[in-house]
């Protein structure tokens, strides 16, 4: 072995043996001193505790390792002891932000799990997102009310953006006597949940807060993926397939599909890989350009010459830097403070037409633009996502009953774990355009790398 190869290998070996630290998880006993552990009511639940106590409970030695963060996280699941007496439990469940397939399944499974596993009876839905804590009456929930909810898209508790008033929310939680708060939402919601948790801890209240990450865009980090994402990818296939048919049936036809994905292109990427009909996939993580050598137009020109048609998939957040904006458009925000995007699909369609008329005057050319927007997320979850939502909800319940707070339940390498809320709230999940996955996309589409030489 020569010197150069050994110097290459050394850092990798060292990396493998780096010590992995256990992530500390907030627990109610950290700031409430007189809290006593109780036997877990699951001891007497013949339907769930089928192992009859042998290896049934998760111990402090059970951890899940994350390659990405190089931390060990506590394994999700029931604990030997609980820190809530079921007759004293009062639960609030809220959904915030945009819709996502599976929201109703998570709510349903929280209600059914809290009721059937632990015998909790005081369960309430907060309607219309964060503002619902202080502006509407909580709605009582029980298993018979929610029994069909997993078959419905959207959230039957309703949702909204904006309306985050920390003081009013925590006052309402306290005044209404809630001691378990389940918050389902995306990155913004998780940032709000961190603030609620910190305020509750500051006030030394015996109230557990848990986040259940929801994002159809799959833009939350640390966890493997977010629920509803796979359903959305599946729904996107119909739009791509229609775009392909339209493009193929026209002379010099282009099928253009815009898919959701504000800051990440996971839906576009996965829909592209699974469809195989896509010639070019544009995502927010990839800068692209239209004109000149190596640009989009040159690539499409070639594709039309070779195949007579082309399919283009674009994530809604792609190209936002190169679409011209007026000063007022630069400032426009939604109720939560997110920048309002311009329609990249409409812009691309008009740029494509302009380019073709200039370069090929008089020749036939068609762009069929399909924007399925809400159709990919306003549906109920598919079977895989439904299963996932159930495991998420039950994991959250076990953690809260075990006294953990300020955490998120989610899968890491396929194993369910508890992760500090704060870590999840600041972990985003961009598509890595420098990894093998992206090489795979390029090998499927043969699209340019858009690196100007
Ligand atoms: N930094 C923040 N601090 C406190 N609250 C926040 C913060 N960011 C967002 N929120 C609140 O969280 C809720 C949801 O935020 P947002 O509309 O950004 O959706 P989200 O949770 O990111 O979901 P998604 O983007 O996937 O639809 C809103 O009520 C918003 O006011
Ligand atoms: O129109 P709304 O409800 O604000 O939601 C649109 C946004 O929600 C998301 O689906 C995230 O939930 C984004 O992809 C999209 O930009
Ligand atoms: Mg968001």
UniProtKB/TrEMBL annotation:
Regulation: Allosterically activated by AMP.
Pfam families linked: PFK
Major place of residence: cytoplasm
Record key words, sorted: Allosteric enzyme, ATP-binding, Cytoplasm, Glycolysis, Kinase, Magnesium, Metal-binding, Nucleotide-binding, Transferase
Superkingdom in the source lineage: Eukaryota
Cofactor(s) demanded: Mg(2+)
Entry GO CC: cytoplasm
Binding-site residues, ATP: 98, 161-162, 186-189
Record domain Phosphofructokinase: where: 90-398
Gene Ontology terms describing biological process: fructose 6-phosphate metabolic process
Residues of the site described as Important for substrate specificity: 188
InterPro entries named among the record's database cross-references: ATP_PFK, PFKA, Phosphofructokinase_dom, PKF_sf, PyroP-dep_PFK_TP0108
Localization, UniProt: Cytoplasm
Ligand binding (Mg(2+)): 187
Metabolic or biological pathway: Carbohydrate degradation; glycolysis; D-glyceraldehyde 3-phosphate and glycerone phosphate from D-glucose: step 3/4
Reaction equations catalysed: beta-D-fructose 6-phosphate + ATP = beta-D-fructose 1,6-bisphosphate + ADP + H(+)
GO MF annotations, alphabetized: 6-phosphofructokinase activity; ATP binding; metal ion binding
Active site: 217
Binding site residues for substrate: 215-217, 260-262, 316, 374-377
UniProt entry tagged with the keyword Ribonucleoprotein: no
EC number in record: 2.7.1.11
NCBIfam families named among the record's database cross-references: PRK06830.1 (NF005301)
Subunit field text: Homotetramer.
Functional summary from the UniProt entry: Catalyzes the phosphorylation of D-fructose 6-phosphate to fructose 1,6-bisphosphate by ATP, the first committing step of glycolysis.
Family of this protein: Belongs to the phosphofructokinase type A (PFKA) family. PPi-dependent PFK group II subfamily. Atypical ATP-dependent clade 'X' sub-subfamily.
Protein name: ATP-dependent 6-phosphofructokinase
Annotated source species: Pisum sativum (Garden pea)
Lineage: Eukaryota, Viridiplantae, Streptophyta, Embryophyta, Tracheophyta
Gene (name only): PFK
